[in-house]
């Protein structure tokens, strides 16, 4: 079954994630805080990327369900913590008050912590249900998710992002931030989806790793373009636009999309993923 990026698939993703939530118990507020952010109208980009790669390669959906659930829990915890006053200090996300505004600073921190832990509970609890012949690939995929989430991945990117302000002009640091803060979880989604296929080759994995880099950069550069306030980058942030200028970034973005599309042209049944990549490139919000 090849799933499209539509309401049915988003509902399927949410339903799978809910299966891995713990039973509600005391204290109720932590369950409320977790669900408030986890089901807060997210785009589910990372779960869908994993699904689309799995479908493209004829992989096993039961292999990726706990993995994409865990990955979305990790992504959500990172957003909760990003919004905190000690980091980005945002009071609103997706048109709703952020977690620390609704539940208070301590509960928001603990909701993020709980989601990170729940992600790995989900991965480990599902291991027994994985086909024995696929368990080595499953552990490899879980390891990629863990590495992409941590100090050498998303967390490292978040730390680097806090170190530089709008006045900074450090292309190497900026590339690191984009590759890690945004790109690392996208890399995890694509490679975990690829490992769901028993026939995946090393050559295909290398191509998909490059694809994940292209998609991660596309996602972030398009965000930079959409975040423009008049002719200036969003205040207080070092972005590719503040370093290279808007026209150069638009050209870079188109080249990334063309490269991603070229990579996908080498795979059969890649139409859904090609459409999704183009949607990331052309989105307006």
Distance between the termini: 29 Å
Number of strands: 2
Mean pLDDT: 93
- Could you name the CATH topology? Farnesyl Diphosphate Synthase
Describe this protein's structure.
- Helix content is 69%, strand content 1%.
- It has 285 residues and is mostly helical.
- The protein has one domain (7-282): Farnesyl Diphosphate Synthase.
- It has a two-stranded antiparallel sheet with strand order 1-2.
- The longest helix has 25 residues, at 202-226.
Q: Which descriptors would you attach to this protein?
A:
single chain; 285 residues; mainly alpha; Farnesyl Diphosphate Synthase; two-stranded antiparallel ribbon; 13 helices; 2 strands; 1% strand; globular
Please outline what is shown here.
The chain is mainly α and 285 residues long. The protein is 69% helix and 1% strand.
